[in-house]
Write a structure and sequence with these properties.
The complex is a heterodimer.
Chain A (H helix, E strand, L loop, with lengths): L14 H4 L1 E2 L8 E3 L5 E3 L4 H12 L3 E12 L2 E12 L3 E6 L8 E5 L2 E6 L4 E5 L15 H4 L5 H4 E11 L2 E10 L8 E7 L5 E7 L5 E13 L2 E11 L5 E12 L10 H5 L1
Antiparallel strand pairs in A: 1-15, 2-3, 4-5, 4-16, 5-6, 6-7, 7-8, 8-9, 10-11, 11-12, 12-13, 13-14, 14-15, 15-16
Chain B lengths: L1 H15 L1 H40 L3 E5 H5 L14 H9 L2 E14 L4 E9 L1 H7 L6 E4 L8 E5 H6 L7 E3 H8 L6 H10 E7 L12 E8 L5 H13 L4 E11 L5 E16 L10 E5 L17 E6 L14 H10 L8 E5 L5 H39 L1 H9 L4 H36 L2 E2 L1 H6 L11 E2 L5 H18 L1 H9 L2 H6 L2
Parallel strand pairs in B: 3-11, 5-10
Antiparallel strand pairs in B: 1-12, 1-13, 2-3, 2-9, 2-12, 4-10, 5-11, 6-8, 7-8, 9-10, 14-15
Helix pairs in contact in B: 1-13, 2-11, 2-13, 2-15, 13-15, 13-16
Classes of the chains: A mainly beta, B alpha+beta.
Chain lengths: 266, 510
């Protein structure tokens, strides 16, 4: 698995992060817990995280999606279609009447947005990257992650817990570099299927910033692919975003023209 | 002698055509008065704005990296610099005061809401030496070093409900304010601060006062003392009502040049509210100690700052920077004490940071002067018309005076005196009117605080409430002289035209 063939679908939003393998748990041999003790029959933290990463790998993805944003008693529906390819390319076009024609293009790690109102393209950079995307609980920064968790974090197995009746392993991740957006994460991984059931993201100070929770995944090929989840930005009062994907197609060929500036401006 | 007679003739002519004279004089007077008034107003606003920028916002100059200055509107904290202490020391040895700062943007969350803010990490002691906004605390105190305390602008405090409420519902009083009282004395104290007012809703006819008597609201009593407010503020602080969170992104430049963004959340407490004469300090800004921003609990700072503010050590409050406070003078002074700034650092004048103010000022200046110029043109057209008509009406009279031996030069001079007197009288009246109108504007000003609040204090000028005029003797005297001279000159073309006519034809002119 080379880096070049990995896909974290940027604007495929967190999907790539959340894809988990349906394969039987391979790493159940022995593991080190946070205290350094070795426990036979318990998967190692590194292996668990590698499985999460491995489950994210695909060449391309297309799907139709919707975000239901619940914010302080109000409800907003965003409908879109999306395509992603490789580590850096993705394209999203919004179709709901309020945002029709708004398009996002992630190309070579840079994120551009086209606004039909001003008929202009803007590069999302700097502090704008931490702003909420389309009023959701996801930031622009969240959408342009493009490296595996294993490469960026050091995992520690923190135990096992039940999540909605499913047995799961709990991983605590600490960023390898001080420049990581979320210096700490906590993952709950299904012990049987390897699905990422829950995830918490933390700021440098240790304050919890966001929560992810899986609602439903679909078996696509040899993966359990998360097609419905909820995200909460804990700094936003009374806010959560439901994310649903339909007609997911993985590893099909997508023409280069989809990920072009011309397509963004069309 | 002849000139005195000519002046006499001019006076008689003015009194013979009294109505025309009065109308023309009025036109000139209004133009001059308006010009003096507007000029004084603009001058006052500009002077106050400049003083407020220097005293509360920037100081005389800033030291920043060139890269930061070029992107300063984005607040690029990754273009900060370290090893600033020797610079501050050298500045102090050279006769300046200096204040290091780390400026960054983020969102401030209170229990009631959130607001985007610009945060200033400051050294409280050094900051007080350079800027004076910390003297204008609406309530509370300036943060102390080593703590996550902060002072915020009044507008942000009101938006985030971090201030002492002026008006509060019965429910809010019971649920929020009284709940924080730890014992009956404190509860009684809080109740004493507010007075309860009942009111009637509008009745079926829609008239106020006809409907039902409703529970009403509590208003902060007008006679609450400063001590009572501070005691109430301490109660708010101890109850946790002013606990806040700062959400920001730490921008870090990697060796490859790529900018990475690390999420950070810091817990803090608002201990003071700033309401200075400069609206920039009262908006969505917060000041917190620089020292707490180092390390993982802060912004991962390793002795970095984004700027050093500089002011002359002997500079007086409210004065504009002197020649020894220019960037060039500061650099020279540093050299004199044996310190050279690193090549990446530059000293920038305060004027390099206030383009919004300069743009607003220039636009207002140009617009106002064009309007006044048009008024001047209108009134001088009136003078030209008056003189033209007067000369036409008096063509036979001119012919007769020429026949009696009056030279062309004497005739031109007499009409120059006549028109000049209209300008002089109008100018003097205008100067008096303009000056009289200026007296209350200079002494009391006009309260624009509501407009400033509507615009969140961000309308270019650095004035929060009172727009005051300033005396400008040069303009007052000059406008009278200019009015006299232009009026006189405007009489020349029609009199020259009349003098071209032969005397015999002038005498027969109907």
């Amino acid at each position: 698995m080379t880096k070049g063939t990995q896909v974290r679908g940027g604007l495929v939003l967190f999907a790539a992060l959340l894809v988990t393998s349906f394969l039987p748990t391979p790493g159940i041999a022995q593991a080190q817990d946070s205290s350094g003790g070795v426990h036979p029959g318990v998967p190692s933290a590194v292996e668990l995280l590698a499985r999460v990463d491995a489950n994210e790998v695909y060449d391309s993805i297309t799907y139709e999606g919707e975000m239901v944003i619940e914010y302080q008693g109000k409800r907003f529906l965003k409908v879109f279609k999306a395509a992603g390819r490789g580590n850096t390319d993705s394209f999203v076009e919004f179709l709901n009447p309020e945002d029709r024609g708004t398009r996002y293009l992630k190309k070579e790690g840079r994120l551009y947005v086209y606004s039909p109102d001003t008929e202009s393209i803007m590069l999302i950079s700097g502090h704008l990257l931490k702003e909420s995307m389309m009023g959701s609980d996801l930031s622009y920064e969240d959408t342009i992650d493009n490296d595996t968790l294993s490469a960026r974090y050091t995992p520690v197995l923190a135990g096992s817990e039940e999540v909605k009746g499913r047995r799961s392993w709990v991983l605590e991740l600490t960023a390898r570099k001080r420049t990581e957006s979320y210096p700490k994460r906590k993952l709950w991984i299904d012990a049987g299927t390897g699905e990422l059931l829950r995830m918490e993201m933390y700021a440098l100070s240790g304050a919890k910033l966001k929560e992810y929770e899986l609602i439903r995944s679909e078996r696509i090929g040899n993966r359990y692919f998360p097609v419905e989840f909820v995200m909460r930005d804990l700094l936003r009062k009374d806010s959560r975003t439901f994310f649903r994907m339909r007609n997911v197609v993985l590893d099909a060929r997508i023409p280069d023209s989809v990920f072009s500036m011309r397509n963004l401006r069309k | 002698m002849i000139r005195r007679e000519l002046i006499g003739i001019a006076f008689r002519n003015l009194s013979r055509h009294r109505v025309k004279t009065i109308i023309t004089v009025t036109g000139v007077a209004v133009s001059v008065a308006l010009y003096i008034f507007m000029d004084a107003w603009l001058l006052g606003m500009n002077l106050d704005s400049k003083r407020n920028i220097v005293s509360y916002e920037i100081g005389a100059a800033k030291i920043q990296t060139q890269a930061y200055f070029e992107k300063k509107d984005d607040l690029p904290m990754y273009e900060s610099f370290s090893n600033w202490k020797p610079i501050v020391q050298a500045l102090e040895e050279g006769g300046y005061v200096a204040a290091p700062r780390m400026v960054f943007s983020g969102t401030l969350y209170s229990r009631s809401g959130s607001a985007p803010m610009v945060f200033h990490g400051v050294d409280p002691k050094a900051e007080r030496k350079v800027l004076r906004y910390s003297n204008y605390l609406e309530v509370g105190r300036f943060p102390q070093g080593g703590t996550f305390e902060m002072a915020v602008g009044l507008l942000a405090a009101e938006k985030l409900k971090l201030h002492i409420p002026q008006k509060i519902t019965v429910k809010e009083l019971e649920e929020k304010l009284l709940r924080m009282a730890l014992h009956p004395d404190e509860e009684a104290f809080v109740r004493r601060l507010y007075e309860h007012k009942l009111y009637r809703t509008s009745g079926e006819t829609g008239k106020r006062g006809e409907g039902q008597l409703v529970e009403g609201v509590y208003f902060l009593r007008r006679d609450v003392s400063r001590e009572e407010l501070n005691r109430f503020w301490d109660l708010l602080l101890s109850s946790g009502e002013n606990d806040v969170r700062i959400s920001t992104v730490i921008d870090i430049k990697e060796e490859s040049g790529k900018i990475r963004h690390v999420y950070q959340v810091m817990e803090g407490k608002v201990v003071g509210i700033i309401n200075s004469p400069n609206p920039k300090t009262n908006g969505n800004v917060a000041y917190l100690p620089l020292d707490v921003l180092s390390g993982e609990a802060g912004l991962l700072l390793e002795d970095q700052v984004t700027e050093i503010l500089v002011r002359g050590a002997s500079a007086k409050d409210g004065s504009l920077p002197k020649p020894d406070e220019t960037p060039e003078a500061i650099v020279e002074s540093l050299k004199r004490v044996g310190y050279s700034l690193p090549p990446t650092l530059r000293v920038y004048s305060w004027m390099d940071y206030v383009k919004d103010y300069i743009a607003a000022s220039r636009q207002d200046d140009v617009t106002t002067r064009i309007m006044i110029l048009l008024l001047f043109i209108l009134s001088f057209l009136g003078i030209a018309n008056t003189m033209l008509m007067a000369i036409l009406e008096r063509t036979r009279e001119i012919g007769m005076m020429r026949a009696l031996g009056m030279t062309d030069g004497e005739l031109i001079l007499s009409y120059l005196f006549e028109a000049g007197m209209i300008g002089l009288i109008g100018g003097i009246v205008g100067m008096v009117l303009g000056s009289v109108a200026n007296i209350p504007m200079v002494n009391y000003g006009v309260d624009y605080s509501s407009m400033a609040r509507e615009l969140s204090g961000d309308f270019g000028y650095r004035i929060t409430a009172l727009f005051r005029s300033a005396w400008n003797p040069g303009t007052i005297i000059g406008s009278g002289i200019v009015a006299t001279l232009i009026s006189a000159l405007l009489s020349i073309p029609p009199i020259l035209r009349a003098l071209k006519m032969p005397v015999t034809e002038s005498l027969r002119f109907e």
